[in-house]
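From the methods appendix. Each design record in this collection lists the discretized structure first, followed by the designed amino acid sequence. Records were kept in a plain field format so they could be parsed without special tools. The example shown here is representative of the layout used throughout.

RECORD:
C-ALPHA CELLS (137 positions):
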C-alpha cells in the first residue's frame, strides 16, 4: 500500500474525489493507494472469489465481491475480496444488489503481494474489522 496523502480531509470529501486505479482507501484520515495487482495476485483473487461464490451463493449464505468499496465507521476501504452474508447484502428498491455499500464486510480478504509487508497488510485488515466479529456459517 502506498500512502498518498496526509491532507486533512473528511470522509465525505474523500468520497467526492475521482476514483483512482488502483483504488485509494481512506483510513484514519489518510488516503492510501492500493498496489496494482499483478498476475499471481489476480489469479488468486479470481479463483478464491469464484470458489466462495460457487459454494455459498447458490444456498443464499454469502457472496464475495472483488474490489468493492465499503464505507463504514469513518473509513472507506476496497478489500481484494469483501464477503457479505446474504441477509446483509445491501439491496436497492428493486431487490438487486445496491451500488453503494455503507457497512463493514463479514469477511475482509487481502491477498499479500510479493512487495507488500505482512505487518502492513495485517494492520490494514485490522482497520477493516467491524466493531463486532461476524462469521459465515
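DESIGN:
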Amino acid at each position: 500500500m502506498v500512502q498518498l496523502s496526509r491532507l486533512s480531509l473528511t470522509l465525505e470529501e474523500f468520497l467526492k474525489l475521482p476514483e483512482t486505479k488502483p483504488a485509494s482507501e481512506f483510513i484514519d484520515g489518510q488516503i492510501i493507494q492500493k498496489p496494482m495487482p499483478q498476475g499471481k495476485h489476480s489469479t488468486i483473487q479470481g479463483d478464491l472469489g469464484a470458489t466462495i461464490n460457487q459454494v455459498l451463493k447458490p444456498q443464499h449464505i454469502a457472496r464475495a465481491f472483488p474490489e468493492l468499496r465499503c464505507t463504514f465507521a469513518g473509513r472507506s476501504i476496497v478489500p481484494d475480496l469483501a464477503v457479505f452474508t446474504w441477509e446483509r447484502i445491501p439491496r436497492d428498491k428493486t431487490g438487486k444488489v445496491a451500488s453503494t455499500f455503507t457497512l463493514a464486510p463479514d469477511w475482509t480478504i487481502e491477498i499479500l503481494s510479493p512487495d507488500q509487508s505482512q505487518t502492513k497488510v495485517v494492520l490494514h485488515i485490522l482497520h477493516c474489522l467491524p466493531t463486532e466479529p461476524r462469521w459465515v456459517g
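APPENDIX NOTE: The beta strands are 2-5, 24-27, 30-33, 62-66, 70-72, 75-77, 81-85, 107-109.
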